[in-house]
Amino acid sequence: MDFEDEDIFMDIDPKILSEKDRWNKHDHDDLHLENVGMTVKGFECPSKHISKDLQVCANSLIGFVNNVLSPASCAVLNDDSNDYVLLFDFLFEKSTALSNNIYELFNFTFTNIYQLESSLNSQDKCGNSKKINQSILGFFKYMLSYVDNYLKCDPNPQESIVIIWNNFNQLKSSLKPLSLIGSTTLSKQSLCHQQFHVYFNVHLYYLLTCYKLLYVQNEKMNSTQFTQYVSEIHSDRETINVDANSLRNDILLVMIQLTELSLKCFNKISQPEDVYHLSPFKCDCVTQFWFILKLICQKMDPHKSNELFWKNLDIVFGLLENEHQEDIGEDSKTDVPMYITCSKPYLYSIWFLKHLLSLNINSNDELIQSPENLEKFIDNFDCTEKITKKLTNVDNISENELRTILTLLDGIISLKETCKPDIITTLWEYFQKRLNSNFVLKSTPFAYTLSCLNNNRSALEVLTHVEQLISFVRKPKSEENSYTLFLRILGMYLMKYNHEQRLWNQIKGRMYSKFSQSKLSTLTEQGIQHVSNLFILLFYIKGNQELVKIQTFLNIILTMKDISPTTREIVLRTNLTFILINIRNNVSLDARLLSPIMNILNENCDHPNKSNYEQVIKLYLLTVNDVFKESEDLTLGQNLLLGHWMSKILSNTKVSSNVMNIFYNLLSLVLSKLRQYQPIERDSQMGMYFSCILEHVLPHLRTDFNFNIDTMETMTEFLSELTLFTLSGGVNYKSETFQILNMLIVNTNVNFELKMNYVKCLISNEDMHSFSLTTFIPNIEIIITQCYLLSLIVSEHTINDSMGKYVEAHCLQRFRQNYAASLSSQYVQEQVLNSSNEETLKQFLRDINLINASITGTEARTQFHNEVNSLFSIEDTLKHVVVTYDKNNSATGKTIITNVFTCVAIIVDYIGGILYKKSKPNTQLQCYIDTLLLQFQVRNIDFKLSGNTTHALRVSFHIYVNALIKLEPVHDNYIARVIKELIQIYLPRLINKIQYETPFSFNRSFNEVESKDMFLLDMIINLFLRKKCKVSDKNSQECLVFLHELLNEYNNVDFVSRFIKTSLDMLLNNLISLNEVDVCRNKIKTILTKCFTNPTVQTIPAVKNHVLIVLTKLSNENLAFSFGQYFQVLNFLLHSCCPGIVTEFRKNILIQKIKTVEMKRGVGEDKVLRNLMEQLDRNIKKVLLVRS
């Protein structure tokens, strides 16, 4: 602090100094003194927290200031009637202290402030600083009291006014600027905190004192007389003008210092959005000071309310922008800086205004005088409008900064009780020049900045975005750009003043004037999108009132030359959003709104090769779907949204499954909504919906085997809804019900999966319980049962209970009633417990067998068999399933093919006796066999089975064989032939040549019943092995591989005995006849060795006798001409298989057979045969020796 050495600062009176101890307050406790320093009001932060609410009461600083500024302020400043006042620990007379000791008292004030500054660099305790602060406040309060109580009574106060004013101004001018004092957020106990608030108090009381002095001056004389007096008396020294202009400029200087204080933090921000977390009021004292400045300005010119305050604030904002200020008083221009350094002046101004206008003033204290002055800040002097206008004239403002400004501006407009349209029109003038811009945020990727646009959004999403945009509880989104925020400001303004037609006329006049044809023709797709967003917002708020004008502009866009497909899509989305808005507002759709939409849609449908063909259709379908979802009343013309375009979509086979699913979902929604209005007359408005679907949809549905399977679920849902609608319509739609059921159920050309899922979906609907389908199609129960069977056979997933319950109630129950009325229902209940499709199918077949077993009459049994055969006439569908999925390499294809073959095998196994009748042609069993197993092509030796069919037959082959054997092939040549063909065709193809993931199930047909084993083994041996064969074929090798697998799996004595009985003759015959190098010889030897591995087998009389018979038979056939090969077989059997049997054969049979050959030859003993026999004898001796 700099003290001036002028004579205005006189030394303290020696008398007073000499009497210091005598007049010290500690020595005169018996006197009643006014302890001003402890009761005076000044700035003191209650906490570090910055409050948005100013609580004002008589004891608060603002309440105190308000009361001081009121005319009746004496009561506030006079605490008692004592004649003495204690100032700076000295006792003074109240009436003369200021007039006699003014220079001493101000000198004390200077000294105390200097001490406070000095203590910042020392270890002084904060308590002493508080004492200094209170002493200074005590003097300031006394000065106000003196002016109010004594100066007013002075008939000639002119000289006192000038002296007080000049001294106080000198004190204030010597202080450092507020912005140079340390942080105000320090603890209350810090010295810097105390210094800061002392400075605040000096400025505050200076302004209050000057105001009171002006008040006294105005009561005594006018300003001209006073100025003349001052110039005469004080012509010899420099003084300031004691007038209102001086005080106004002093207020301005304080406002500048407070602004510079808040700029200390503001200028440090790195990103504009950082201001969201900052406040221009560093503590509550700053907030209070701004409000006190407003109070003083109000008091200075009560007729113009807050004009002075906002005028000064406008000057401050101008200094931020480095503008020349003409409104500053000439006397203070030297004190006011040329400019204030600010990195972002417009952002700061709006940010400051937002916080200033957000302050709330709460005052309910009855002791406060003139409470009408304690109103919150209200910008009635276009300060915001001026800043906005300057802002929009700047070209280089960044998108980040502009976005932040508009976010703050949005809050300001919502706070203003009345707002002129100037802000809106000014912002529009800015953005209409930049409609083609992207408004890219620096901190956000470009892709996210488009979230404010409508690309790839449905109309409902656009509408939802608009609703959220102008919601009062909305939180700003980081990715929204400045144009989106402008739309919010516009929307909020129009919502607030929706009934002010004059304001709307001003705004729309400025807006619509910018949409000339030449202007619209310069717009890019981005610009058109921005205009579209604007139109949607206007239509949302104003509705059909602005439809004609908006449609005019949209039509200009549509008729532009070389319009892009994307632009057409934008216009379509805009119009579709209009429709949604009208539906939500329960407003009917008219031709003005629908015509441009249908024109774009039909044109798009007529040109399916367009690049955005599907996008347009999808957009339209999604919107219409949302329209019906939102519709509570279907009489608003929604039926006009359906029409000829539907048949065009259905006729185009290239439309994606995704779009078609949306289409079918839309139709299902429409029908479900309509069903609530049944019964509906055909010619009514509601009836027009169904007529449109009947005319444009039903004839064009692809229900044949080539339909798109990816639309299965949605299409069947739609068809079931269509059926339920006609059924619920009763006699009004009886013919349509018949037509639909015949087309989808009776028609054999309908895709089996479509029919199956349609029936499933239809039966699953609870509303179906109210209707009887047999009224329309007598045999529909059989068809539904067939669909149920197909579902069990084909479906990958478990079938729901609805179809099972329907079949139980309408098929099985009817069978029981007609053929087995006494049959107990206890058995039937068990099927509910089964879960898998296969188990459910088995339970169904067991039910049929149970009914069949209960029938006693031949005629009834025959009739029942006929009905069951009709029920299972599904071979054509199964054939198509196999053709469809046989080459499908997915897991689904494999599963479905396996299910088909396995389930058909189960059907044949369980009810083969019902499906087949001996000597009857074309039975159902024969149809299954011919369709799935014995097709013409599989008989071709070069035909190769697919992987799916191979897997399915490896799993199910044994079921077919077992089922056919149950039909007694021994007594039925057809069944025997079928089994023979199945084994001949499939065994070589299914045997384990490579490692399959599932074993060949044919093995499971063996080791059960002796007759079946003998039958199958004999058939296999005779099919694949031939006598006198020198070279084996491929099938023989596969047969031997299978036989070896059988022996590996079933090595028990019984099975091996059966195997030897059926196979030994052919195996030994081939062993003799085959060439030495043939691969089958070793395989036969392996099989024979495996047969006799168990020594017990050789001891079984039946086996022993059979081996001897076979060897005898072979000797008769081969001893004369193939004796070498024959003896090789005997030696092999001797060493590897059955030495005991061979030894017995040698002793009892072989010698006789050799003699017989020799006798026939007539040459005596044959040396070769004898030598071979001798060699055999030697081998026998060796074997016996080894065994012994």
TrEMBL record:
Domain Protein MMS22-like N-terminal: where?
81-677
The residue ranges of the MMS22-like C-terminal domain are 832-1177
* Pfam families attached to this UniProt entry: MMS22L_C, MMS22L_N
Signal peptide segment? none
The record lists the organism as: Cacopsylla melanoneura
* Descriptive protein name: Protein MMS22-like
Listed under GO cellular component are: nuclear replication fork
The record's family statement is: Belongs to the MMS22 family. MMS22L subfamily.
Question: What are the record keywords, sorted?
Answer: Chromatin regulator, Chromosome, DNA damage, DNA repair, Nucleus
Task: Cite the InterPro entries for this sequence.
Answer: MMS22-like, MMS22L_C, MMS22L_N
Q: Where found?
A: Chromosome; Nucleus
Domain of life where this protein originates: Eukaryota
Its GO biological process terms? chromatin organization; double-strand break repair via homologous recombination; replication fork processing
